[in-house]
């Protein structure tokens, strides 16, 4: 008698996302799992026996669609306070760059984050992660970057890890010490990068860092400073990613590709040379339509070139208090379709399999035997609806590693 599966859902359709294109649709499907991994993803009619004889727990889904669990591969969801007042300033005409240069922006969240102890930071951040989970996210990337000193960065990364443990979602942490120059280093960006490069090995040694990011921009760091951070990451064998070419073309995409980076994120101003470098390096383009939407940007990422050159496009929330106070990855998919003209299928691939690649993860993002049993059962009659509805609650259940989370 073979070992029973832990769980089996029957009677829903599957969007497996197998293959390079299409939904990988299986109508009247069945999904079984054991020990946190998928063991069967196919037609109910092809099950190797009666459901009750195959699994400990059988759920009759009664319709709907099952997709891979969503992967939010770019968030800054751990932070103190909020920036609603800045939102109002921008509505009255101030630009993001002007606000940043006058001491607001990222640095104002740094003040609020430094003022919060670990418990308070956890309590403020947990509901944001819970909201992302409630709309289908089973993997979250969370960046540091609002502490900008050793203790503050450590506190953020510890809170990120705790969020994963307390919600059951898989959290991948990214060290973003090079997010902005903190006030105590004003005018001394080089010295600040020295400090960032010293903190990184310590935080990595504490098991807090899965990847390294930087903000390469006129109001961020220069390519040479970014390189220094990437060299420090390389010395530790850590993968890199980059906030690249968001507000201007600083050659960021090509730079991160040169380091074999996992992803170049934002990429509105990325040049043809940058796209070609990403294609060669296998660097994923992470599209962040929430920031584009909130900042009222008009310059579109080079979508046609990404498609032509086979650069995978991921979609993420960029959940942060300044440019993208966005608490639903499905909503980011919707914005990617309306602003960037992604197809709903591209948006779903972007929020699953391509997003997993942007985190260096190959064990999720597709419904396939052997991969993690991360999946969402949606109350929809076609998977294109996921990128179609604005808001609403379409989730019937969310499983990560075979455990039901909501
Ligand atoms: O991805 N651009 C840099 N980082 C964030 C914004 C952070 C903030 O304004 O607090 C982004 O858009
Ligand atoms: Fe960001």
UniProtKB/TrEMBL annotation:
One Pfam family matching this protein: Amidohydro_1
Coiled-coil boundaries: none
Pathway assignment: Amino-acid degradation; L-histidine degradation into L-glutamate; N-formimidoyl-L-glutamate from L-histidine: step 3/3
Binding site residues for N-formimidoyl-L-glutamate: 146, 320, 322
Annotated GO MF terms: imidazolonepropionase activity; iron ion binding; zinc ion binding
Database matches in CDD domains: Imidazolone-5PH
Similarity field: Belongs to the metallo-dependent hydrolases superfamily. HutI family.
Main location: cytoplasm
Species of origin: Luteimonas wenzhouensis
Enzyme class per UniProt: hydrolase
Keyword Cell inner membrane among record annotations: no
Boundaries of every Amidohydrolase-related domain copy: 65-398
Cofactor(s) essential for the protein: Zn(2+); Fe(3+)
Cross-referenced InterPro entries: Amidohydro-rel, HutI, Metal-dep_hydrolase_composite, Metal_Hydrolase
Keywords: Cytoplasm, Histidine metabolism, Hydrolase, Iron, Metal-binding, Zinc
Locations listed in the record: Cytoplasm
CC terms in the record's Gene Ontology section: cytoplasm
E.C. number: 3.5.2.7
Protein name as annotated: Imidazolonepropionase
Superkingdom per UniProt: Bacteria
Swiss-Prot/TrEMBL catalytic activity: 4-imidazolone-5-propanoate + H2O = N-formimidoyl-L-glutamate
Keyword match Metal-binding: yes
GO process terms (BP): L-histidine catabolic process to glutamate and formamide; L-histidine catabolic process to glutamate and formate
Protein residues bound to Fe(3+): 74, 76, 243, 318
Binding residues for Zn(2+): 74, 76, 243, 318
Note describing how the cofactor binds: Binds 1 zinc or iron ion per subunit.
Binding-site residues for 4-imidazolone-5-propanoate, renumbered to this chain: 83, 146, 179, 246, 323
């Amino acid at each position: 008698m073979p070992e029973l599966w832990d769980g089996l859902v029957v009677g829903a359709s599957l969007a497996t996302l197998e293959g390079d294109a299409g939904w990988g649709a299986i109508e009247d499907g069945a999904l079984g799992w054991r020990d946190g991994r998928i063991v069967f993803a196919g037609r109910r009619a092809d099950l190797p026996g009666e459901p009750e004889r195959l699994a400990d727990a059988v759920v009759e889904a009664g319709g709907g669609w099952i997709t891979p669990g969503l992967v939010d591969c770019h968030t800054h969801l751990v932070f103190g306070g909020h920036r609603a007042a800045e939102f109002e300033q921008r509505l009255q005409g101030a630009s993001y760059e002007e606000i940043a240069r006058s001491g607001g922006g990222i640095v104002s969240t740094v003040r609020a984050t430094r003022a919060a102890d670990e418990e308070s930071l956890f309590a403020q951040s947990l509901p944001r992660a819970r909201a992302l989970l409630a709309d289908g996210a089973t993997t979250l990337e969370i960046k540091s970057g609002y502490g900008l000193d050793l203790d503050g960065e450590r506190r953020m990364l510890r809170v990120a890890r705790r969020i994963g443990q307390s919600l059951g979602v898989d959290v991948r942490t990214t060290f973003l010490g090079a997010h902005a120059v903190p006030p105590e280093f004003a005018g001394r960006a080089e010295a600040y990068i020295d400090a960032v490069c010293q903190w990184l090995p310590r935080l990595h040694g504490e098991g807090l860092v899965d990847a390294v990011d930087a903000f390469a921009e006129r109001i961020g760091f220069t390519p040479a400073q970014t390189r220094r951070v990437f060299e420090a990451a390389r010395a530790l064998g850590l993968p890199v990613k980059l906030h690249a070419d968001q507000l201007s073309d600083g050659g960021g995409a090509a730079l991160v590709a040169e380091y074999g980076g996992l992803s170049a994120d934002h990429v509105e101003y990325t040049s043809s040379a940058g796209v070609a470098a990403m294609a060669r390096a296998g660097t994923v383009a992470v599209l962040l339509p929430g920031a584009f939407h909130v900042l009222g940007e008009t310059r579109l990422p080079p979508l046609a070139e990404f498609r032509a050159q086979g650069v995978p496009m991921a979609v993420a929330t960029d959940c942060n208090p300044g440019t993208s106070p966005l608490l639903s990855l499905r909503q980011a998919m919707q914005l990617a379709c309306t602003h960037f003209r992604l197809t709903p299928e591209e948006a779903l691939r972007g929020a699953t399999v391509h997003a997993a690649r942007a985190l260096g993860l190959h064990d999720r993002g597709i419904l396939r035997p052997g991969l993690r049993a991360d999946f969402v059962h949606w109350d929809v009659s076609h998977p294109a609806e996921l990128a179609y509805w604005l808001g609403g609650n379409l989730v019937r259940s969310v499983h990560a590693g075979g455990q039901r989370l909501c």
